[in-house]
Structure to design on (172 residues):
């Protein structure tokens, strides 16, 4: 064998090895699973167990968050751990892993006069800022001649929730 032939064989061997490393590394990264601390981007649809959809971001802007950082409800966090890019699944999240039960202490009765000249009706949604600066969102659930009952529970409290989730990105 001459020197040129040996160099040619060595060059081909190096190229084949480089391609093999690229393919193995590429398939490993494509197969990465979501772990705590990863920045995850998903599409999701949320619905009640009766099928009524309350929110969906499919066909719009995807949702990003850090897995395990308490940025989403606990059941959603648990559901995405171990998922891979382009994987989809549907999970039912029990009330206690979603927004919890309805808290009766978050229903308060206030005089109608607290609303000034505004007409108060059941179903009205409003926001208030507390003395400590916390934003509170509430809904009028009942009205009589003198008082209105306000519910400050999270609107999805008291429900098991169904989510269809598709992971579209994982950043380690």
């Amino acid at each position: 064998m001459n020197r040129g032939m040996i160099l040619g064989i060595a060059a081909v061997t190096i190229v084949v090895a480089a391609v093999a490393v690229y393919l193995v590394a590429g398939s490993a990264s494509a197969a990465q699973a979501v772990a705590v601390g990863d920045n995850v981007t998903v599409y999701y649809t949320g619905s009640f167990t009766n099928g009524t959809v309350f929110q969906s971001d499919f066909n719009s802007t995807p949702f990003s968050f850090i897995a395990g950082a308490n940025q989403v409800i606990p059941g959603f966090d648990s559901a995405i751990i171990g998922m891979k890019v382009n994987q989809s699944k549907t999970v039912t999240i029990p009330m206690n892993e979603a927004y919890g039960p309805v808290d009766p202490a978050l229903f308060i009765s206030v005089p109608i006069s607290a609303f000034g000249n505004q007409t108060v009706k059941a179903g009205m949604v409003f926001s208030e800022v507390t003395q400590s600066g916390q934003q509170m969102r509430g809904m009028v659930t009942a009205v009589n001649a003198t008082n209105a009952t306000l519910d400050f529970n999270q609107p999805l409290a008291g429900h098991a929730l169904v989510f269809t989730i598709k992971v579209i990105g994982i950043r380690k």
The radius of gyration is 27 Å.
